[in-house]
Protein: 4,4'-diaponeurosporenoate glycosyltransferase
Organism: Streptomyces pactum
Amino acid sequence: MFEFVIPARNESQRIGTVIADLRDTHGADARIVVADNASDDGTAETAKVAGADEVVHVGRVGKGFAATAAMKSCTGEFVMLCDADINGLDRMSVADLLAEVRHRGLPLGRLDLQRSPHDAPVTTLTASPLLHLLGVHGTREPLGGLMALDRDFVLDLHLPGDWGFDVALTLAALDRAGEVPERPAPHVTHRRRHLGTYRQMAEQVSAAVLRHHHLLPWDHGNCTRCPT
């Protein structure tokens, strides 16, 4: 059984295709949990019609809040975290990554889309240079959203609820295991976002990195485990 977690905010135009692709490649072996992150475009309804096994409604806006809420509804030791705007995710890539993480006892493994710098502006211009300056190595794709995860590892952490979630999770996994395996998946594609979204993402990613290194105080209001 493969458990897929898909955080989604206003993705009604894409979520159905993602779910259909997962069903085509994994069939009855897939359990798909969609986290509808305060959408106002019918994302939840579209996900249900497309065949999601469960739709979790998450009122606090942010990828971290959505992802962790959906993981609480899962039952397996490991889950596959997916973006809601991807195409081309194949069964073998998922199976191999999950098997490696499980066999080696790692908290996190990632599929590397091998994007060009133009297709990954926040990674290229913000995350990678900042991590390099702080002496963090061992990851080419610190923000990649296709991850095989040890569910308990994630739920035990205090993580940013916003776009800083992915990089904070990467840093925590590096602290725990010393590595994050990244396996190439150049056939997987995703959409480009509006420039304004990238600016907000860059700010939140930077804050997450600086907080991990104790260069900014922790934001309890933007924490996946702190009480609201």
